[in-house]
Specification:
alpha/beta, ten-stranded mixed sheet, binds glutamic acid
């Protein structure tokens, strides 16, 4: 080899390897399975990634790599898992409840193959508004432009339910936009909307982005009677106070009292028993590490992880919960 060639050889080798075999840079040796999550501004994506991380610490032993996959959220995830198009998904407890009973989006078509794996954190019903829009309650949304999320999304379905509960006619009393929620922070900053709805854990990147622009924003607390009304309506709903110190630049000075609902990791009845067992085991046995993956997980307990999961437990999760004495 001439001195020039010897000098250039490593460079030529790298160029050759990257140009001749591009897929090798993106594929893995192990089989892969995905967890359908939400858009990347939310907490589902972080939660799916954290579950995958716990499992993948032993990916050689399990010969499986879990991946968090972005999606349109609860409803799309339930659809994909129910149809066998994905083995795992994350969804709101109220969405799983409707799917199980054949209500709302699943009217007349009860989904009986959904199985729960792990309970996760509480998500909060969140109204983000521009301070200059003068929205201090849900009633103040009258006459405003509000993004409720994509047609058929959980956010949009809930929004319509809430407007009805408030006596606001979605057709005539306000202007509704149905853009994907990941665009909402930008739309708020550009002045295209006055407020948006997002049921999501905190802190999240959507509100971080919305609050870091020129237009000052706040989180609106829903009326107390609305919160109390819905809170008592269903076992899967609760209330929570969104801490303000998560978002340095929002106008709120006190925690925001609002409705909350549990986020649940679920699968199909036919999802492999051993894989489900391994996932539950890795999260449980490394719970302190799991809790450090996102501030929304900070208060997780074995009880939250294993109870009030709406759809029947997957046999893999059941086996683990029995082994550790959480179930008889
Ligand atoms: N709650 C939202 C949904 O059901 C997703 C929130 C998130 O991605 O964190 O679609």
């Amino acid at each position: 080899m001439t001195p020039v060639l010897r000098y250039l050889f490593p460079v030529i080798l790298i160029v050759f390897l990257t140009c001749t075999n591009p897929p090798a840079a993106f594929s893995f040796d192990e089989p892969m399975q995905s967890i359908k999550t939400g858009n990347i501004t939310g907490v589902y994506y972080a939660a799916g990634s954290a579950v995958a991380k716990m499992h993948n610490r032993k990916l050689k032993e399990y010969n499986l790599r879990l991946l968090a996959e972005a999606s349109e959220g609860s409803i799309a995830n339930i659809q994909d898992v129910a149809e066998g198009a994905a083995p795992f998904g994350i969804a709101q407890a109220n969405a799983l409840y409707s799917a199980k009973r054949g209500e709302s989006f699943w009217q007349g078509e009860p989904q009986d193959k959904l199985r729960s794996v792990l309970g996760l954190y509480m998500e909060d019903f969140t109204i983000v508004a521009a301070v200059d829009a003068g929205i201090n309650s849900m009633a103040d949304l009258k006459g405003k432009t509000v993004n409720i999320g994509e047609l058929g999304s959980m956010d949009a379905i809930q929004a319509i339910r809430l407007f009805n509960g408030l006596g606001l006619d979605p057709e005539n009393d306000l202007t509704i936009t149905e853009k994907p929620t990941y665009e909402a922070s930008e739309l708020l900053q550009s002045g295209d909307i006055d407020a948006y709805f997002y049921t999501v854990g905190h802190p999240n990147l959507s509100i971080k982005e919305a609050s870091s622009g020129e237009r000052k924003i706040m989180i609106v607390a829903p009326e107390r009677d609305i919160v109390d009304l819905f809170d008592k309506k269903a076992e899967y709903l609760g209330t929570n106070d969104i801490p303000v110190d998560y978002y340095a630049d929002i106008a709120n000075k006190a925690p925001i009292h609002t409705l909350s609902v549990k986020a649940i990791l679920f699968s199909h009845a036919d999802t492999d028993e051993q894989i489900v067992y391994n996932i539950v085991k890795e999260v449980f046995e490394n719970l302190d590490l799991f809790k450090r993956q996102h501030p929304a997980f900070a208060n997780l307990t074995p009880e939250i992880l294993s109870t009030r999961l709406i759809v029947p437990l997957h046999p893999g999760a059941e086996r683990f919960f029995k082994e550790v004495g959480l179930l008889r």
